[in-house]
Amino acid sequence: MKILEYELRRIYLPLVRPFRTSFTTQTDREVLLIKVTTEDGIVGWSECVAMSAPLYSPEYISGCLETMREFLIPALNKAGDIQAENVASHLKPFLGAQMAKAALETALLDAQLKASGISLATYLGANKTRVPCGVSVGIAPSIEALVDEVTSYVEAGYKRIKLKIEPGWDVEPVRRIRELFPDKPLQVDANQAYSRSDSKLLKRLDEFDLLLIEQPLDEHDILGHAQLAKVMSTPVCLDESIISLSSAQDALELKATSIINIKPGRVGGYLESVKIHDYCVARSTPVWCGGMLETGIGRAANLALAALPGFTLPGDTSASSRFFKQDITTPFEMVDGYIEVPNGIGIGVVPDIEFMESITRSVETITY
Ligand code: OSB
Ligand code: MG
Question: Is this prediction's pTM over 0.90?
């Protein structure tokens, strides 16, 4: 497969409500979309999960654009006739840049699968046609506001609730939600907001029967997570720290994590995600699919991954309406707490070009 054109497009979508985490408050989602066109005129789409600023991960949209334009796309072009399966090795000389690399690999994979007539779910090894949905709930302005928001998600059918926490917003909000919904699968996500000296405080969360606590400490603090995991009964689950199969293997071996949040963008793509999944399945470690406020393009691909057999916990695979009033694809809707895995060829969705154009901030085209 030879790619004749790469289109890099920044779009801007308002969120239905502000999404507050320990690292930022988002009121809209800027998204970098990739479109590739092959010499046969087949088009592939993907979404880069980087955010506008380097607050969740070191990557950010302008940086990804630069990396793609200056290094990654020229390297793929130089490689000539390429397969999605070889993208990672062609890009290996360039350090880091998992999110940028993942986006390019996924766009190529979409085009390649469209050419061969198979769906991403089938290609990755999915064994489900629908996946259970979890929802990630931001830090609220008050406990009452949190109760209202969580209640609306429980009533909508979400099968698992994840509460964002930070120092000053942890034990009390979690206690309140646990009291209201004693049987609901519940987990928390700190996005690195705590430090090693907070273990006593974090241990207080053990009484709430949580599925897991996600990334309490700094992304580089593997030892700290291992120490914390020893003293907490709640399982520790790493998100930001897991950037590849080898980092997952190390963290598991060191007992810094006992469950893995697989976010395809963060680990360099869907193919690396499957490797992490397979490794975890072989050692009976549960995995779940994380989210990055994706539009329908990224959401479609995440649903395909979440349909693999080792994804035994509900992921952050919520309905499009959780974040967007209008999505750029046909929205993903939740029925009885599940979303159907797309079964069309490739990622199985295409953007509504007219709407996408209307929310475009800039487009850059690289033609060979
Ligand atoms: O830590 O899982 C996270 C969103 C942006 C960046 C990081 C995270 C999140 C979420 C939302 O929790 C997940 C979703 O897309 O539903
Ligand atoms: Mg997280």
Answer: yes
CATH class of 3-117+353-367: alpha beta
Interior/surface letters 231-257, b for 16+ CB within 10 angstroms, e for the rest: ebebbbbbbbbbbebebbbebbeeebb
Question: Coil, helix or strand for 7?
Answer: strand
Question: Which residue's alpha carbon is nearest to atom 14 within ligand 1?
Answer: 291
265-321 pLDDT, tens digit each = 999 999 999 999 999 999 999 999 999 999 999 999 999 999 999 999 999 999 999
Closest approach atom of ligand 1 to CA 135: 16
The 10s digit of each residue's pLDDT in 84-120 is 999 999 999 999 999 999 999 999 999 999 999 999 9
CATH of 122-340, picked from 3.40.190.10, 3.10.50.40, 3.20.20.120, 3.40.50.2300, is 3.20.20.120
Q: Which amino acid makes up residue 292?
A: M
Per-residue pLDDT tens for 238-265? 999 999 999 999 999 999 999 999 999 9
- Ligand 1 neighbours by CB, cut-off 6 Å: 56, 136, 189, 191, 239, 290-293, 316, 318
